[in-house]
Automatic annotation (TrEMBL), chain A:
It comes from the Bacteria. InterPro entries: Beta-grasp_dom_sf (IPR012675), Mopterin_synth/thiamin_S_b (IPR016155), ThiS/MoaD-like (IPR003749). This is MoaD/ThiS family protein.
UniProtKB/TrEMBL annotation, chain B:
PANTHER family: MOLYBDOPTERIN SYNTHASE RELATED. InterPro entries: MoaE_sf, Mopterin_biosynth_MoaE. GO terms for biological process: Mo-molybdopterin cofactor biosynthetic process. It catalyses: 2 [molybdopterin-synthase sulfur-carrier protein]-C-terminal-Gly-aminoethanethioate + cyclic pyranopterin phosphate + H2O = molybdopterin + 2 [molybdopterin-synthase sulfur-carrier protein]-C-terminal Gly-Gly + 2 H(+). Heterotetramer of 2 MoaD subunits and 2 MoaE subunits. Also stable as homodimer. The enzyme changes between these two forms during catalysis. This is Molybdopterin synthase catalytic subunit. Keywords: Molybdenum cofactor biosynthesis. One of its GO terms (molecular function) is molybdopterin synthase activity. It is an enzyme of class 2 (transferase). Converts molybdopterin precursor Z into molybdopterin. This requires the incorporation of two sulfur atoms into precursor Z to generate a dithiolene group. The sulfur is provided by MoaD. Belongs to the MoaE family.
Length: 80, 154
C-alpha cells in the first residue's frame, strides 16, 4: 500500500505519466522532494492546488496523506 | 425542481436532451438553451478536455444547485463532454426552464460563465499534429466577476 498521485493537465505531461505511487506517509515536503526537479518546481507555484481524496486543500503545505490515499495535483483550470 | 447534470465521454446530440427536458416541465413559460461547439479555428485539428472525476462532476452539480438557488427556475440541465473532440462537435449544453424568460436566460448565462472559467477541466488543442495546453483566459475571469454581486432573485 502507498499513496497514489494523480497528475492533471500539463502536469501529466511534465510527469510523463498520469499517475504514480509513492510511499506513505506523505506530506508536502516529502512530496516535493520525491518529484523530479522540473515537476517539483511546477507544483510549488502558487496556482497549483492539491486535492486529498477528492477534497481540495485550502493550503497544500498542510498535506498529510496516509496508506491508500489519493493526492491529485491540479494546475489552473482552462475551463470547459 | 429538476436538476440533470451529466459528464459524457462520447459525442452527443443536444436535441435528444433538450426535448425530454422541456417535456418534463409542463407549464413552463420559457426554456433557454445554449450549445457550445468546438470552433473551427484556423488549423485546429482536435480539442481534448481532461477532468478529475472526484471533483469535476461534483463541481458541476454544485453549480446547478447554485443556479437553482439564485434564479427562479423549474429545472436546469447541464451536459459536458470530456475526451477528444473534432471541430463542430458539441462540447457543452446548458438548458434552463422557468415560468418567466429572464430567469431561464440569466441562469444559462450564469452557468456558462462558471463552466468556462471555474470548472475542473483542462483543455489542450492539436494543431499540425502538436498538442498545446490552453491557459486560463482573462476574459473568462472578467465574465465570472459579473456574478459576484448578488442581485434580487429573478
Amino acid at each position: 500500500m502507498s499513496v497514489k498521485l494523480v497528475f492533471l493537465g500539463k502536469l501529466a505531461d511534465l510527469a510523463g505519466l498520469p499517475e504514480m505511487t509513492v510511499e506513505a506517509p506523505l506530506d508536502w515536503v516529502s512530496l516535493v522532494e520525491g518529484l523530479e526537479a522540473g515537476l517539483a518546481e511546477a507544483i510549488e507555484g502558487d496556482k497549483v492546488r492539491l486535492a486529498l481524496n477528492g477534497t481540495v486543500l485550502a493550503d497544500k503545505r498542510t498535506l498529510d496523506a496516509g496508506e491508500g490515499d489519493e493526492v491529485a495535483l491540479l494546475p489552473p483550470v482552462s475551463g470547459g | 425542481m429538476a436538476r440533470q447534470v451529466e459528464l459524457l465521454d462520447a459525442p452527443f446530440n443536444p436535441g435528444s436532451y433538450v426535448g425530454p427536458f422541456t417535456n418534463a416541465h409542463p407549464g413552463l413559460g420559457g426554456v433557454c438553451t445554449f450549445v457550445g461547439e468546438v470552433r473551427s479555428d484556423d488549423d485546429v485539428e482536435a480539442l481534448e478536455l481532461s477532468h478529475y472525476a472526484p471533483l469535476t462532476l461534483a463541481g458541476m452539480e454544485a453549480l446547478a444547485d447554485e443556479a437553482l438557488g439564485r434564479f427562479d427556475l423549474m429545472g436546469i440541465l447541464i451536459v459536458h463532454r470530456v475526451g477528444e473532440m473534432q471541430p463542430g462537435e458539441p462540447i457543452v449544453l446548458v438548458s434552463a426552464c422557468a415560468r418567466h424568460r429572464r430567469a431561464a436566460i440569466q441562469a444559462v448565462d450564469f452557468a456558462m460563465d462558471h463552466l468556462k472559467s471555474d470548472a475542473w477541466f483542462w483543455k489542450r488543442e492539436r494543431r499540425g499534429g502538436v498538442w498545446t495546453w490552453i491557459e486560463p483566459r482573462e476574459e473568462d475571469h472578467a465574465d465570472l466577476a459579473r456574478w459576484r454581486e448578488t442581485p434580487e432573485k429573478v
